[in-house]
Design goal:
The protein is mostly helical. The chain has eight helices and two strands. It has two domains: 92 residues, Orthogonal Bundle (434 Repressor (Amino-terminal Domain)); 55 residues. The chain is 66% helix and 8% strand. The protein is globular, with a radius of gyration of 16 Å. The mean pLDDT is 83.
């Protein structure tokens, strides 16, 4: 996706439309709600909704950056050419997108990984929710989930 958006400011109409499709595709591939994507990206849920419906045409570069970072984290390689949007899934992305009935341990593992990503994002001050209080809450939640995961492993 980086190549597709490089060197253009402001984004062209075609690039904006591709970003709208990419957000919908990312949610669909991974079964994410708008709230899930908002939590991972630090982009507000109403902004994600506007992007998906195509009613948000004044997209900030920071917003696309945050969404691109989530796509890469989840295992998507997004690119575009004259024929449209190209989406490739990494092995990690395939594993996550095809896990339709995760066990409790797999679900906890996904949550721990997601919180690790959110913590990294907040430490780097990406996203509107990157406050010290929210960061501390995420760290505490991750520790709690790790304890539960360890308990499951010993059972």
């Amino acid at each position: 996706m980086r190549d597709f958006f490089d060197g253009v400011s402001p984004l062209t109409q075609e690039q904006l439309e591709m970003s709208f499709v990419a957000v919908k595709a990312m949610r669909g591939i991974f079964g994410l709600t708008q709230g899930d994507l908002a939590r991972l990206s630090g982009v507000s849920k109403p902004t994600i909704s506007r992007l998906e419906t195509g009613s948000e045409f004044a997209v900030k570069p920071e917003t696309l950056f945050l969404l691109i970072k989530v796509a890469v984290y989840l295992g998507l390689d997004l690119n575009g050419d004259e024929n449209g949007l190209i989406i490739r899934l990494s092995i990690k992305g395939i594993d996550r997108s095809t896990c339709t009935s995760p066990s409790e341990a797999q679900l906890l593992q996904f949550q721990v990984e997601d919180l690790g990503y959110i913590i990294e994002r907040m430490k780097n001050d990406w996203g509107s929710d990157a406050s010290p209080k929210k960061l501390a809450e995420c760290i505490a939640e991750r520790e709690t989930l790790l304890e539960r995961l360890n308990t499951l492993g010993r059972s």
